[in-house]
Every structure is written in C-alpha cells, then in structure tokens.
Automatic annotation (TrEMBL):
<feature type="binding site">
    <location>
        <position position="50"/>
    </location>
    <ligand>
        <name>FMN</name>
    </ligand>
</feature>
<dbReference type="InterPro" id="IPR026021">
    <property type="entry name" value="YdjA-like"/>
</dbReference>
<keyword id="KW-0285">Flavoprotein</keyword>
<keyword id="KW-0520">NAD</keyword>
<feature type="binding site" description="in other chain">
    <location>
        <begin position="145"/>
        <end position="147"/>
    </location>
    <ligand>
        <name>FMN</name>
    </ligand>
</feature>
<dbReference type="GO" id="GO:0016491">
    <property type="term" value="F:oxidoreductase activity"/>
</dbReference>
<keyword id="KW-0521">NADP</keyword>
<feature type="domain" description="Nitroreductase">
    <location>
        <begin position="30"/>
        <end position="175"/>
    </location>
</feature>
<dbReference type="InterPro" id="IPR029479">
    <property type="entry name" value="Nitroreductase"/>
</dbReference>
<protein>
    <recommendedName>
        <fullName>Putative NAD(P)H nitroreductase</fullName>
        <ecNumber>1.-.-.-</ecNumber>
    </recommendedName>
</protein>
<dbReference type="Pfam" id="PF00881">
    <property type="entry name" value="Nitroreductase"/>
</dbReference>
<keyword id="KW-0560">Oxidoreductase</keyword>
<dbReference type="InterPro" id="IPR000415">
    <property type="entry name" value="Nitroreductase-like"/>
</dbReference>
<keyword id="KW-0288">FMN</keyword>
<comment type="similarity">
    <text>Belongs to the nitroreductase family.</text>
</comment>
<dbReference type="InterPro" id="IPR052530">
    <property type="entry name" value="NAD(P)H_nitroreductase"/>
</dbReference>
Length: 197
C-alpha cells in the first residue's frame, strides 16, 4: 500500500474534491446548529497563522445582524447607483436573508508586525475559510461564498463596527443543498504548478 491509499488520504481527497460553491439561493433550511457551527469555527481556528496574529474573525449573523447587513447592501447599492430601482434595492436587501446560516469573514490587518505581510494574513484567512468549508462539507452541509463591492462599503463597515485596517472579505452561507450545478472543471495540475529543475 502506498501512503496515497490510506483511508485518511482517500477521505481527504474525496472531501476536497466534492466541495463546490453553492449559491445562497440553492442553500435551504435546515442549516447547521450552533453546536455544529462551533465545530466548524474550531476547524477555521486550526488554519496556519504566521506568528499567530489571529488576523481574521467570523461574525455569525443572527436575524438582527442579517437585517443590518441587508440595509447595508441596500444603502451601498444606492450610493454607487443612485438610479437603482426599488426592486433592485429590495433585491440587494434580500441577499442578506438567503440561506439558513450566514457568516461574515473579516480580515484584521491592523497588527503592527512588519515580519508578516498583509498577503500572508489574507492567506491565513483563506485557509481558515477553506477549513470551515471542508468541515461543513464533511458533515453534509453545502456552502457558498459571496462578496462584491458592498463588502467595502461604508454602510457595511459601519453596520459591523469595522475599524481602519479591518476588511469584510466575503459572506459564507451554509445550509442544505437543494440543487447543485455540475461540478466546475478544476485547473489541470500543470496549469497551476511549475516544476523548477
Ligand atoms: C473570497 C471569495 C469570494 C467569492 N465571492 C463570490 C460571489 O460573490 N459570487 C459567486 O457566485 N461566487 C463567489 N465566490 C465563489 C467562486 O465563484 C467559486 O469558488 C468558484 O467559481 C470556483 O467554484 P468552486 O468553489 O465550486 O470550485 C467567491 C469565492 C471566494 C474565494
């Protein structure tokens, strides 16, 4: 048996390759409960983190927070497009209500630590998100990431009390997959790797 044939390797590969982005409209109730969310967040907390700066956190959004997020989405749209119609504004607001469980991922780039570049801190957040998504996938929950210009809006920053140097990166929706699209074709290994002699 080669090391690739161990049960753990087979499981890990199956988990990684079966995860796919599911849009929030296709994630329906039920979603993971608080106990499960805590397990998923503990998986996020196991992400690599140079000098252990903890350069990110997750906001778990309850109904009031989701209403605040919806208002921020609506306000951000109106600010960047004053001609937006009522139905477009309502649609923007609605985005915060899709899916049973919603988290907001925030990068904290404030730590004055010249040895750890901002890019490294964002990599750590990406790893934390992926840990969370895979832990969710392993338990049968679907997930999707959403972002867009509203993430950088003053309205959203104010709604979640973000300080200078803190950045809302994306939302994470978790729930039951009602309808999955065919899996995306992933890049071939030789497209993403250069074998340096
Ligand atoms: C930080 C981040 C933000 C994303 N934001 C969006 C988004 O706003 N809308 C969307 O449809 N997908 C979004 N995605 C998901 C990607 O579209 C998706 O991961 C990509 O299509 C690859 O598909 P896969 O995850 O199924 O492999 C985001 C992904 C990341 C990493």
């Amino acid at each position: 048996m080669t090391p690739d044939d161990t049960d753990l390797a087979v499981l890990a590969d199956a988990l990684i390759h079966s995860r796919q982005h599911i849009g929030p409209k296709r994630l329906v109730a039920p979603g993971p409960d608080e106990a499960t969310l805590r397990v998923l967040l503990a998986a996020a907390a196991a992400a690599p983190d140079h000098q252990q700066l903890r350069p990110w956190r997750f906001h778990v959004l309850g109904p009031q927070a989701r209403a605040r997020l919806g208002e921020a989405f609506a306000q951000a749209l109106q600010e960047r497009d004053p001609a937006a119609t009522e139905s477009q504004v309502a649609d923007a607001r609605d985005k915060a209500l899709r899916g049973p469980v919603l988290l907001l991922a925030v990068a904290d780039l404030r730590a004055d630590e010249p040895g750890v570049a901002e890019a490294e801190r964002l990599v750590s957040l990406g790893a934390a998100i992926q840990n969370l998504l895979l832990a969710a996938q392993a338990r049968g929950w679907g997930s999707g990431l959403t972002s867009g210009r509203s993430m950088r809006s003053t309205a959203l920053r104010q709604a979640f009390g973000l300080q200078e140097g803190e950045h809302a990166v994306c939302c994470i929706t978790l729930g039951t997959v009602s309808r999955a699209k065919p899996a995306r074709l992933r890049p071939a290994v030789d497209e993403i790797a250069r074998w340096e002699p």
